[in-house]
Task: structure prediction
Amino acid sequence: MGFCGGCCKPLLIIFNIIFWLSGAAILGIGVWMIVDKNIASYFEVLNIDTHDKFFRYTAYLLIAFGVFVFLVGFCGCCGAIRGSKCLLGMYIFFLVLIFAGEIAAGVLAIIYKVKIEEKVESTLEKSIKEKYGPSGSATITEAWDFVQIQLECCGGKGPNDYNGSTFAKDPNKQIPLSCCVLTNKKDAYDSPDKATAVNITECQTKQSEYHTKGCKDSLINWANKHTGILIGVAIGIGSLQLFGIIVAACLCRQVDREEKY
Result:
């Protein structure tokens, strides 16, 4: 118990500073999901409706969770400084709850990752054929344009995904301008309709100056990369929390022992 008496308080305070930073990261992810155009476009293309209430609630839940982590960290600091068994007990309880929630979120992320990989090809093709173009969904169209410009790709499997689509009714416009080799790529991010190509006519009739690579592999890589980052962050924070639980329990025992004597 000598180690606990001398080191647990500073260790718990240092841990909570790191814990607060993790809360800021979680809060930042929630805000990022709401405001970042990139993630909104990728999710729209992958058939995840960013205007759906479930998506918005998920982002708000992450923001609330980040704030909650701040409050739990504050509770732990107060408990360590004041030597309060009550505050330390609450702190340990909330850490265990957060740890269980992170495990559940990690499992769901792994399941969802597999689900995306299984259905992505059919999802992308259906999205293009049924929802891209003036007669389709403006949100999906804008998302596809953004993804095709940024990733320099065309369609899901390739440009032929546009064959028989609602967009390709005009023989002179078999693929959209966002599939072309653009001369103003950076400006086209914000306004795809103002994009200019090396040769618009030859591009949109699939003769030359267009991207032949499909977007599927790039989108899967993007999803895997970001899911992997989230899983890694969750594992890292979870490991830290186990350390915090052990240190807090040790300090709680020390406080209890001091009260008895």
The chain has eight helices and no strands. Residues 48-52 have pLDDT under 50 and may be disordered. Residues 147 and 216 are 11 Å apart (CA to CA). Residues 85-131 form the longest helix (47 residues).
